[in-house]
Amino acid sequence: MIINRSLVLKNHKYTIAFVGWMMFVTFLSLASFSDTDTADIDIPNLDKVVHFSFYFGAAFLAVLFIKEITNGTIELRKAVFLAVIGAIIYGIIIEVLQYSFTADRHGDILDALANSVGAIFGSLAVKSLFSSERWLKWKN
Domain extents for the chain? Predict the structure, then answer.
């Protein structure tokens, strides 16, 4: 049996994007950057903006991933709920791992809050794309 690679990639583009994004977020959350010179960068609360952005993207892609793997058979509202809850739980787990298992990273409740707010906004953003007034349709 011959598998058409371009067809596989096309049919699983959101799965690939979501898994890749989560690997990226996980790596950046748990890797050590102690040797990196960031002394020149001094933007207040920049890390909270980064946390928000990471989890905005995670929840946004998670909704599309859920749509892709269910072929749109799951309700949009349920997909949004699952994406938000999943992203929030994942963000909390990452903060606990930072606190427990990294030498130069620390878990922060405000980071977890920024993750959660980003996840909520990301899922609401993708939900609005599939609202009845938009050209995107949830059901295939």
Answer: 5-31+47-129
